[in-house]
Design brief:
With 173 residues, this protein is mostly helical. The chain is 57% helix and 0% strand. It contains five helices and no strands. α4 packs antiparallel against α5 (116-146). It is elongated. The relative contact order is 0.07.
Length: 173
Amino acid sequence: MPHDPDFELYDNVGRDADQIAAARYGIATRADLLRWARRDAEPFLAEHPLPIKPVPGPDPAPYLAALAAAQSHAEVSAVTQHLLDAAEPALRAVSEYLYAAAQWRGQHRVAAKGSPPKLLMEAASRSLSVAAIADQADLTTLRATYDPAPPSTSSGLPARPPHTPPGGPAPSR
């Protein structure tokens, strides 16, 4: 059981599943941990105030309206690419912060796989891969629309390329 003076055992009346599990195992809940950290960080935050408003992101309403009106893969792609372009700065900022947090005080150098610094580095990478995966899905759809693979032959081998004339000088008559 944690030794923090703020820790209380919970009864199950009015408690959520996280609180019930915490009481059963004698551990702090996520809310407990965050509350304690906020309390202990108050003097620090007084010296280093951070923005209260969330990081601005693109308003999804125009993208959702345009998506609902789209009639072709090209139109869906145009909306998707505009959204990815609008979201990229925020995703990059999150990735940069998570990477810096992973490197804080050199803790990442000796960190084991699955440790908090390694998880933060993975999160930094994945925050950017969201856009890359969406872009790949969009391009795969466009390839299927504009550049479909040639039909395969019944032999299971790829179709023969179109006839190309042999290289070199043309035979004389």
